[in-house]
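Human: Respectfully, please carefully check these tokens:
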Amino acid sequence: MKKLLVMAVCMGATATLLGADGTVNFNNKVTTAGINARVSDMDGNFVSGADYVAQLAWGTASDALAPIGAPVAFYSDKDTKYGYVNGGVVSVADMAGAAGFIAMLTWSPADGADYASAKAAGGQTGMSNVIPVTLGGNGEPPALPADLVGMEAFALSGEAIPEPSTFALGLIGIGALMLRRRK
């Protein structure tokens, strides 16, 4: 009976380790770990508050990243924390100790509910450089979340979408040119 009990405990521990979630410390301001990756808007101002959100993207290949975790707002402390986000520990299902790639996606919720829709709408969006990580949470000491060491500061970009009145003025101008040319 003891052998069966010991074997069941060992199998349960193995299954727990194999199915454990990998973890990442989603924070772009951890100066002790060498991370200082502030995010700025198209005008060069550091983003803040709920006007912008950030979300972590993960993948096992650097060109195949998918968003994970929930989007989080940037800090609102003007003097010290503009441009920084603290999303806490983000889990990657069943990937404890796995090697992969991470990037931060940033956008304005006014432009879209998620990064892809904000980018498709031509809104202000940005993506950090892609960095390789080995996820934490594998049950071996220290089993801490991986830090985003190597992430660099970046600025958002976007397409300027003209106002309807701009289009109307352009059409009037083209019409005037065509009428003048006829005469």
Q: What stands out?
A: The first strand starts at residue 22 and ends at 27.
